[in-house]
Amino acid sequence: MNVNSPPKHPSAPPDYDVIIIGGALAGAACAVQLLARQPRLRVLIVEKDAELGRRVGESTVEVSSYFLGRVLGLTEYLNQNHLVKQGLRFWFMNDQSHCFDSCSEIGPKYTVTLAAYQVDRATLDEEVLSRAQALGAEVKRPATVIAVDICAGGQQSVRILQGESEIDLLSRWVIDASGVARFLARKHHWVRPNARHPIASVWTRWKNVRCWDDPALHAEHPNFGNRCFGIRHTATNHLIGRGWWSWWIPLKGGDVSVGIVYDQRLVDLPQGEDPVQRMRKLLDTHPLASRLLENAIHDPKDVHFRKNLAYDSEVMVGDGFALVGDAAAFIDPFYSPGMDWVAFSTASVCALVLTEQDGKSAPDDASKLNAALRLSSQRWFEAIYADKYYYMGDFDLMQLAFRLDLGLYYLGVVSQPFHRGWEGLTTPPFTGPGTAIPFRLIRWYNRRLARIGRARMDSGRWGRNNNGNYQPFLSYRFNSELPLRVAAAFGAWLLLELKEGWRTWFSGPDPMASRNAAQIPEQKPPALLIPD
After folding, report:
1. Tell me, what DSSP letter sits at residue 61?
2. DSSP character for 290?
3. Do the beta carbons of residue 230 and residue 280 sit within 8 Å?
4. Are 168 and 62 in contact (CB under 8 A)?
């Protein structure tokens, strides 16, 4: 093997200010944010693939749409090359539901207020990478980072393999945006699987999936067709069962991304010859899936099956290095939080780098951001996702959780960038002043709903209203009605507690008590504990 450059002494002049591992969305977005604010920076992106491929994370929500449009400047590109998303829809079922008319539904009655998008990540990521290059970032591809020697407070040594040549470089900062490969976290044994959230997933893309707005389908099921005035097909539609859910995301050109996510404590895929066949068997237990896929075909080269999806990293930021996006943590695809995490993690890390470049940094800035990102990831899981699969498939409980989750998301998270601009993304969720109380409140009602859901499972009352109900949803807005609507949702929760929940106040089934062999082993408790 040829060596183009000998190893460099750490005190030698740096070749770059920032080297970024990975050129997909998180890595390219870091370069765009840095160079848009300090064009003089020397930024190198090392991308292992000659051509970026499709990946999950195709559905944006309010924060990630703001990030793509107003921070990265992609609004015109998104409208020309991707689909405008029409919110979230949830479809429930029980033994009495058998068609589009009878499956209970939650979703917008009209079009949504704030723009979001359904994106093909292969083309989106290439676009962001090309914009980073246009701003002055150097890109080496295909090339692989094979070694990084971290020197806290000094220069980072990076070895790259490009073709048959190894290249040694020095940089003040290394940003790991390698996604689930988690280059730095794996090397340093920082990866921490989330044993409390043992979810697994199978996904692929399909052609010829039936359109939710097909006039023939509406004529066959007139109640289904007439009760909604908006567009269903370009929403992220969720088919939900007991312990599992499935996403249906349309992409420009006609493909539809379909994936299934399940809690291994509650359900497993049926036996089958391959992951797609096993996925189809579970999907077909929902009465809508077989109708939507009756003429569909999938790409056999685009099938993915992954267990134990949830993880984070014991270290996310140090003095001279940072982990962003999936390289730092992943929680759950429900509610599409992955690109929000990309927005917050990349913006906060870029702000740290820029502050140092401006000579305004403090010695403990990196450790503070490390603590904030770790705390954000942990609280995000604790508040929204812990044991959610025990109730998300119950129409009554999920429609209440959706009103609360989304309303508080608007109040505390979405409002920040819309009111403060890019700086609103530099404070990770649940870490700013005064956020401990909202975190505890959200965690409280989700724990209560999970316990009620488990009690309903044990008593045979789970999913009793999963047929014949429609919850039309009007988009939240940043106005005086928003806190009132959230307060009304809290009132509905209080009523549920008085009618039913009181039975589990002092006793009753604990969802965490149902761990089974499908769950990964319990992990060592994290060093950074979430306050009670």
Report:
1. -
2. H
3. no
4. no
Q: Are 68 and 60 in contact (CB under 8 A)?
A: yes
Task: Report yes or no on whether pTM surpasses 0.85.
Answer: yes
**Quick one: CA dihedral 78, 84, 89, 91, positive or negative?**
negative
H or E stretch including 175? strand 165-176
Report the distance separating Cα 103 and Cα 157, nearest Å: 57
Percent of the chain with pLDDT over 70: 93
Domains and CATH numbers, the chain: 1-82+119-193+311-361 (3.50.50.60), 86-113+198-307 (3.30.9.100), 390-502 (no CATH)
Tokens representing 461 are 């009352």
Phi-psi region of 236 (alpha: psi -120 to 50; beta: other; left: phi over 0): beta
Task: Find out whether 286 and 91 touch, Cβ atoms under 8 Å.
Answer: yes
Q: What is the DSSP annotation of 201-238? A: EEEEEEESPPPTT-HHHHHHSHHHHHS--S-STTSEEE
Is residue 10 very low, low, confident or very high in pLDDT (cuts 50, 70, 90)? low
Residue 530 is classified by DSSP as: P
Average pLDDT, the chain: 93
In single-letter form, the type of residue at position 169 comes to: L
What backbone phi and psi angles, to 5 degrees, belong to 388?
-65, -25
Name 116's Cβ contacts closer than 8 Å, sequence gap at least 6. 59, 60, 61, 62, 64, 65, 84, 85, 87
DSSP 32: H
Q: Minimal CA–CA distance to 96: which of 287, 293, 291, 239? A: 287
DSSP letters for 76-138: HHHHHHSEEP--EEEE---TT--STTTB-EEEESS--SS--EE--HHHHHHHHHHHHHHTT-E
Are the C-beta atoms of residues 310 and 330 closer than 8 Å to each other? Answer: yes
Please give the Cα distance from 225 to 117 (Å, whole number): 24
